[in-house]
Write a structure and sequence with these properties.
Blueprint: H1 35-49, H2 54-97, H3 103-122, H4 124-136, H5 141-151, H6 153-205
Helix pairs in contact: 1-2, 2-3, 2-5, 2-6, 3-4
């Protein structure tokens, strides 16, 4: 009897110092997202910023999460437009096949228009024929893309707000990280000057 096959899971070498690994939570990925791609992005950001403390590490974790989130929104926005292209094809076909018909013929034409748009989505040969017919009436790929954007405009506005929000939060974290490092550097400099003054005073007292 054949049982399920357990494939070896890819192992990713952590870029974090051992004392910081507990600060990095496991990624919350959506179905279809690639864990190796996530780790590669996270590793690149950690190596670039090179956090030196727990606070810096926490900030960099959030920066990596937001960067992944931005990429996710871009992928979903593209898939959204791909989905809305079927609706755009249907609307464009309606302009060609339905307009000008009698009310009785219009109902039949509407039915076939919906069916043809579905065929366009599922059948590559039908898609090529439909696109060629639309092109003959002056509706090229740019016209279809424009119609898809018009149909998806409300949802696209949502994605634009999500993208902008994530980008602003990431920028804010980068500024916070720079401010923290500047403050830590100033504190270290102050402590170093105090130590030097103390040593100097000790030598003068001898």
């Amino acid at each position: 009897m054949n049982g399920p096959v357990s494939l070896p899971q890819p192992q990713w070498e952590s870029v974090l110092p051992p004392q910081f690994e507990a600060l990095c939570p496991p990624p919350q990925l959506l179905p279809g997202e690639n864990i190796d791609h996530y780790h590669a992005l996270q590793a690149a950001i950690f190596r670039d910023i090179n956090p030196q403390s727990a606070i810096e590490c926490l900030l960099v974790v959030d920066i990596a999460e937001l960067t992944w989130e931005i990429q996710r929104y871009r992928v979903l926005r593209h898939r959204l437009l791909t989905t809305y292209r079927q609706k755009a094809i249907e609307i464009t076909l309606r302009r060609v096949d339905v307009a000008g018909n009698s009310p009785e013929a219009r109902k039949v034409a509407e039915f076939y228009t919906v069916q043809n748009a579905l065929d366009w989505q599922l059948d590559s040969k039908a898609a090529a024929e439909i696109e060629a017919r639309l092109h003959a009436y002056g509706f090229d790929q740019h016209a279809v893309n424009m119609e898809a954007h018009v149909q998806a405009r409300e949802v696209l506005s949502l994605f634009e707000a999500l993208l902008t929000g994530a980008q602003l939060r990431r920028l804010s974290l980068l500024k916070e990280l720079n401010a923290f490092r500047a403050s830590a550097g100033a504190s270290f400099g102050s402590r170093l000057r105090t130590l030097n003054n103390s040593v100097h005073a000790t030598h003068q007292g001898k």
